[in-house]
User: What shape does this take?
Amino acid sequence: MILAAVLCLCAPAFGQELRALARLLPEASGVEDTRDGVAVTLAITQAVPYRVVTLDAPKRVAIDFREVAFEATAKDILRSEKVTDLRTGRIAPGWSRLVLDLAAPMKVDLAGMVTDPAEGDAVIQVTLSEATVEEFAAAVALSSDDLVALAASETPPASDKPRPVIVLDPGHGGVDPGAERDGIKEADLMLIFARELREILVRSGRYDVVLTREEDVFVSLPARVSIARAVEGDLFLSLHADALAEGRATGTTIYTLSDRASDKASAALAERQDRQDILAGVDLRAQDDEIATVLMDLARARTHPRSDAVADFLVEGLRDSLGKLHKRPRLTAGFSVLKAPDIPSVLIELGFMSSKADLDNLMNPDWRVKAAQGVLKAVDAWHLDELARREAGQ
Assistant: This one.
């Protein structure tokens, strides 16, 4: 028997590997013996498409999930003598598998998922019962281990348009740690926040999300822009928490692209980011020459008002969720990472690591959740604005 949830092909192929992963919650999960078989309870942080298949040689039941990370050892949830072993692994792009090795033939009696409508958490329950050799063979015959065939049967999204793709760009990484204070690196903090923000955006069910980097690796500024364009990003948010020598800057600031910086501090931040790429061997001048054409300028002339609108929404959303922001929360500067001509692009300085108060906030998970919720509010407002612009033919 095959039991498969409805599947939704909404993300670009390149972005499938970079979307937020559901995580197994071992404390609320278990594989336990019952009088007639085995009860499998899998608590995960968000609802995902899944399927159950019965396989032979050796006898086993496999549960396949779209994008689930088994961060804890799956064997921690095994409390059964009828299931001899649990194994997890990745079997196809975007698919992970939990395998239950069976001590004797069993069949799937029930498979279902219950989702919390408020939080988005989900519980998958699978009930197995003892089976004859013939019953087990029939279940294997009805099962398919071909994910290509499964994907071909996926139901298209209800809307005729895919969800917007939000590209999150955690600043710095690798040889470029960004700002540092007390052993804490800006690159690490921004990757943490990007992952948390991705989780909130994806769990809203309204967006697909791609990160320009998933690890502590160096990605050049032009490459970050190229990634956003390769996945046909609809919105580009670059995430930073810089430092200024004078140490007086504090609070969240939203930047948009401009040839002329709002002030000397903004100019210094933009220059510092470009300098990091040059030190890593990337020649930004060639990139600037390449895109300095009339067509690019025309594209930017159309995109800039949309970037400005995003920035305004971010100020409103973050102010609602965080309260006080920087004394001048809307600034401009010539950040190279904002130079995608056809994608609304904004740089968010969540805070300044040169400020102890800001650094304390950045290290506080509760504060980061509030910040992420503020960004979600802003992205929702941006999406509605984009739809209105589209209807107006802008």
